[in-house]
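Field log, afternoon session.

UNIT: design team B
ACTIVITY: writing a sequence onto a fixed backbone
BACKBONE:
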C-alpha cells in the first residue's frame, strides 16, 4: 500500500510540474498529461503490475467527465440534433472505415490487419473532445451538441465492434444476430427508463437531498459511479462512458444540476488527469523507423479526411460551413478505443507488432494536432473561410426563419434562452421590429409559433449575420455568455458604419473591461443586477420592514419582487 501511495504521488508530482511548464509555454494540459505518461514509462517509474489500480482511478475520471456532460445536455436538446448526429455518425463510420481499409491495403497491410487498422482509424475520442469542448465552454454550442451526438453514435458502434472482436478471440463464443438484437433491446430499455425517470422522479429526489450540500455531492457521485458500474457490468455490457453520460442525463432536468456540476468539476479534473497519464504510459513503440511513413500518411488521412467527410455530410444536411468545419475538427484524432482494438488484435495474433507501432504513432500525432485544432478552431475557420464555402449549400438549414427580405432599424436578439426569454416576455408588442437568432431548434420553433422573426444558427457565422441584416440594425442584444463567440461577432459589428448599439451579457465581472475594449457599448452582468435588485428591495423602507410582522414583510417583499 505504501509503495502504491509513493508511486501515485510521483505521478501526480511529475504531472503537476510538466503541466505548469506546458502552461508557461501556452500548451494544452492534455498533452502535458500524455507526455507525463510517456516519460514515466521511459524512466521505468511505474511497474505494469500496479497499472490495474490506475485503470480503476482513470475510469472514475471518465465516468465523472461523461456524467457532467449528461448534466449539461438535457434530453430535449439532445433530441433536437438527434437526426443530424445519427446520419453524420453512421456516414462518417462507413466512409472512414471503407477508405481507411483501402489505404491500409495499399500500404501493404494484410486484409485482416487492414480491417483492424480501419476500425481503429474510424473512431474518435469522446473523452478528449468533451474535455476540450468543456474547457472552451462550447458544450452547449450548436456544433458542440452535434459533435457530442455523433461521438455517442460512434461509441455505440464501438461497443458492437469490440463485442464482435472479443467473440472472435474466444472460440467458445460466437457473435450472432441474436446478440445484436439483445444490444438494441438494452439500448431501448436503458434510454427509455432514463427519459421516464428524468422527467419527475429524479428531480424530486435530488431536490429532497439538496439542503445538505455534503450529501448532495456524495449522492451525485454515488449515482454516477454506481450506474456506470451497472451499465458496464457483464449483465448490460456497455461502456462506463455511456453509463456516466446516462447517469448525468437522468439528473439534467433537476434545478440543482448546475450546482452538482460546479461541485464535481475539481474532482473530475484530478481523476481525468490519471486517465491521460495512463494513456501515455500504454503507448507502445517498436520498429519506429519502419512505422514513421505509414503512420504519417494515416495521420494525414485522420486529420484531413475525417473532418472532410463530416463537413460534406453536414453540408448536405444544410448546416453552415462554420458548423461543419468546427464539428469536423472534433473527429480529427483516433480514440483510446483504437489502441484497445489494435492491442486486442495483436494479442489474438491477427495484427503484427509493426501495425501496433503505426497506430500508436497515429494516436500521438492526431492527439497532438487535433488538440491544437479544436482549441484554435475559430482562428482556423477565419483563415480558411473562403475555401470552406464549397461545403455549404445555397439553401441553408435555417429552421423556422421568418425574417423578411429587407430589415432596417430593427433589434437583433442573440439567444432566446433564460435572459432572452425574460426579455421577449416584455417585448411582444414589438415583434415586427425584433429578429431572434438561436441555435436550438426547439427554441426557434417555440418563438416562430408566437409570430417572431427567427433565424436558426450561430451568431459567429458570417452567413447568419448577413441573414439578420446586422449592418442595418439599430441595436444588437446578445444574451449568450460565451466570451469567444461574443468577441467574434463584436469584431464584425465594429466594422459596420454606422455601428449599431451593442449590449452583451457576461457571467464574470472580470470580462467586463475586456468586452468594452472589444467594442461592446454596454455589458450586463445578470448576477450583479439580481444582487442589486434584491438589495434595493430589502432595503426599501428598511425601518418599516424590520418593525413589521413577518406577514407584512412577506406581502411587501412579494409586491416588490414581482416588479423586478
Amino acid at each position: 500500500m505504501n509503495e502504491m501511495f509513493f508511486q501515485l504521488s510521483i505521478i501526480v508530482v511529475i504531472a503537476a510540474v510538466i503541466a505548469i511548464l506546458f502552461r508557461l509555454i501556452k500548451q494544452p494540459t492534455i498533452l502535458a498529461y500524455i507526455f507525463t505518461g510517456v516519460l514515466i514509462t521511459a524512466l521505468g517509474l511505474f511497474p505494469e503490475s500496479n497499472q490495474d489500480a490506475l485503470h480503476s482511478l482513470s475510469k472514475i475520471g471518465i465516468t465523472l467527465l461523461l456524467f457532467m456532460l449528461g448534466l449539461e445536455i438535457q434530453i430535449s436538446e439532445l433530441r433536437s440534433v438527434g437526426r443530424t448526429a445519427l446520419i453524420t455518425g453512421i456516414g462518417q463510420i462507413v466512409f472512414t472505415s471503407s477508405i481507411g481499409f483501402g489505404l491500409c491495403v495499399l500500404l501493404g497491410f494484410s486484409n485482416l490487419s487492414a480491417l483492424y487498422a480501419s476500425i481503429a482509424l474510424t473512431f474518435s475520442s469522446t473523452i478528449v473532445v468533451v474535455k476540450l469542448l468543456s474547457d472552451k465552454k462550447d458544450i452547449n454550442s450548436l456544433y458542440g451538441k452535434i459533435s457530442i451526438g455523433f461521438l455517442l453514435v460512434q461509441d455505440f458502434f464501438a461497443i458492437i465492434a469490440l463485442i464482435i472482436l472479443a467473440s472472435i478471440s474466444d472460440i467458445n463464443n460466437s457473435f450472432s444476430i441474436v446478440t445484436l438484437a439483445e444490444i438494441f433491446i438494452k439500448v431501448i430499455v436503458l434510454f427509455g427508463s432514463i427519459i421516464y425517470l428524468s422527467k419527475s422522479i429524479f428531480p424530486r429526489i435530488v431536490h429532497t437531498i439538496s439542503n445538505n450540500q455534503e450529501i448532495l455531492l456524495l449522492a451525485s457521485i454515488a449515482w454516477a459511479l454506481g450506474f456506470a458500474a451497472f451499465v458496464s457490468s457483464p449483465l448490460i455490457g456497455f461502456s462506463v462512458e455511456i453509463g456516466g453520460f446516462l447517469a448525468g442525463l437522468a439528473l439534467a432536468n433537476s434545478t440543482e444540476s448546475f450546482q452538482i456540476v460546479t461541485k464535481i468539476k475539481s474532482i473530475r479534473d484530478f481523476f481525468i488527469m490519471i486517465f491521460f497519464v495512463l494513456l501515455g504510459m500504454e503507448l507502445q513503440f517498436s520498429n519506429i523507423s519502419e512505422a514513421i511513413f505509414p503512420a504519417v500518411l494515416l495521420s494525414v488521412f485522420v486529420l484531413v479526411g475525417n473532418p472532410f467527410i463530416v463537413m460534406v455530410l453536414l453540408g448536405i444536411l444544410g448546416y453552415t460551413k462554420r458548423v461543419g468545419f468546427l464539428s469536423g475538427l472534433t473527429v480529427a484524432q483516433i480514440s483510446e478505443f483504437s489502441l484497445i482494438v489494435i492491442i486486442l488484435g495483436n494479442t489474438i495474433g491477427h495484427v503484427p507488432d509493426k501495425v501496433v507501432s503505426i497506430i500508436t504513432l497515429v494516436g500521438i500525432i492526431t492527439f497532438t494536432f487535433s488538440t491544437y485544432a479544436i482549441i484554435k478552431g475559430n482562428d482556423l475557420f477565419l483563415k480558411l473561410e473562403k475555401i470552406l464555402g464549397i461545403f455549404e449549400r445555397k439553401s441553408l438549414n435555417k429552421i423556422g426563419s421568418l425574417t423578411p427580405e429587407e430589415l432596417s432599424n430593427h433589434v437583433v436578439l442573440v439567444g432566446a434562452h433564460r435572459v432572452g426569454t425574460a426579455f421577449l416576455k416584455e417585448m411582444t408588442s414589438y415583434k415586427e421590429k425584433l429578429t431572434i437568432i438561436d441555435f436550438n431548434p426547439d427554441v426557434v420553433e417555440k418563438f416562430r409559433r408566437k409570430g417572431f422573426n427567427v433565424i436558426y444558427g450561430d451568431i459567429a457565422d458570417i452567413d447568419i449575420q448577413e441573414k439578420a441584416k446586422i449592418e442595418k440594425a439599430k441595436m444588437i442584444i446578445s444574451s449568450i455568455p460565451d466570451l469567444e463567440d461574443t468577441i467574434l461577432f463584436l469584431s464584425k459589428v465594429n466594422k459596420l458604419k454606422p455601428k449599431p448599439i451593442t449590449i452583451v451579457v457576461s457571467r464574470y465581472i472580470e470580462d467586463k473591461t475586456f468586452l468594452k475594449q472589444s467594442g461592446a457599448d454596454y455589458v450586463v452582468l445578470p448576477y450583479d443586477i439580481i444582487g442589486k435588485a434584491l438589495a434595493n428591495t430589502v432595503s426599501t423602507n428598511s425601518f418599516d420592514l424590520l418593525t413589521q410582522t413577518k406577514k407584512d414583510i412577506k406581502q411587501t417583499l412579494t409586491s416588490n419582487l414581482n416588479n423586478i
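LOG NOTE: The two ends are 59 Å apart (CA to CA).
NEXT ACTIVITY: expression trials, pending approval
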